[in-house]
Amino acid sequence: MRFSTKLHNSKFANIENIHSKRKNLKINPQYFTGAVKIKAISSVIKSKEQKVYHVTFFGSKTKVHSHEGGQILIVTKGKGSLSLYKKIGKGKKKFSIKKTHETKLRPGDVTYIPAKILHIHGSIGKNAVFSHIALNSYPAKNKEPKTTWFESDFESKVTSIIR
Known about the structure:
The protein is globular and about 45 Å long. The longest helix is centred in the first third of the chain and has 4 residues, at about 40-45. By secondary structure, it is an all-beta fold. Strand 1 and strand 2 form a beta hairpin. It has one helix at about 40-45; strands at about 1-5, 10-15, 35-40, 50-60, 65, 70-75, 80-90, 95-105, 110-115, 120-125, 130-135, 145-150, 155-160. The strands form three sheets. The protein has a six-stranded antiparallel β-sheet, with no helix packed on it. The chain has a five-stranded antiparallel β-sheet with strand order 3-4-11-6-9. It has a single domain (about 25-160), classed as Jelly Rolls (Sandwich). The termini are far apart. It is built from one helix and 13 strands; from the N terminus they run E-E-E-H-E-E-E-E-E-E-E-E-E-E.
C-alpha cells in the first residue's frame, strides 16, 4: 500500500494497486458456478461509504443475487456479461424470475446495478477469464452492504436462498 499526498484535513489518502499480491478472500463457493478469486480493496483504502473488491472469474459467473445498496462494476479484463432479473411473486425463498436485460461487458465498461435488483455477472465462456472492480454501496450511513444469494435455474425460477 502507498500513501498519496496530504489532503486538506491532514489525513492521507490510501492507494491500493489491484494487481498487488494481496491475499484472496475466503468465499462461499456456492455463490458461484465455478472458480472465482476476490481481493478486498476497501479494507486497505479504508472506505466508509462502500465495500470495494477486485473479482476475477475463471470461466464462471455469480448465482442470482441482489444487494441492499447499489453496485457499480468497472471491468478490468476479459469479456463478461451482466443479466438483470425481475422478481415475480411474493415468496422470499421460492419465486419466479424473468430476465429483463442482458449486456456484454468489456474492459473499461462501467455499469450501475440499483439496490435490490436481482442479477448475475461473470465470464462469457467456460475457459474465459473476466475481472471487474465491484463497489457495493452502503444502504445507509454506517450500515455495511448485505448481499442475498439464491439458487435458481437462471431462467425462470428461484428455488432457495443460499446461506
